[in-house]
Design a protein that fits this description.
Order of helices and strands: EEEEHHEHE
Number of helices: 3
Number of domains: 1
Largest sheet: 4 strands, parallel
Number of strands: 6
């Protein structure tokens, strides 16, 4: 059992380790629409074009960039065509880059 922290987790089957794995969801609101127009802010990394897969995410937000340009928070949008596996892989990338706590709490999928 996973401890109850009131956070939202995505549970998936980890076939490598033959067990269920938990990935924390940084989002607490999910919108199925185009995001509102945002005024750019300093120290915010915006990825406006919807991310379609983990390779697309890596192209737009590299590890080097995350280290060289520390952000107050990160705003990302996802493609409605994204597969669940890619969604989980991007959540894992958030953790790997240590930006999970900086990702916007609002997710727009379109």
């Amino acid at each position: 059992m996973h401890e109850d922290t009131k956070d939202i987790y995505f549970v998936y089957s980890d076939t490598v380790h033959k067990q269920n794995a938990y990935v924390k969801m940084p989002f607490n609101k999910i919108y199925l629409e185009i995001p509102p127009v945002m005024e750019p802010e300093i120290d915010v990394r915006y990825i406006f074009d919807p991310i379609s897969d983990v390779e697309d995410f890596r192209e737009k937000f590299t590890e080097e960039r995350a280290i060289q340009e520390p952000y107050k928070w990160v705003w990302v949008n996802f493609s409605k065509e994204m597969k669940a596996e890619e969604f989980v892989n991007i959540l894992i990338e958030f953790e790997r880059l240590n930006i999970l706590d900086k990702v916007s709490k609002n997710l727009y999928i379109y």
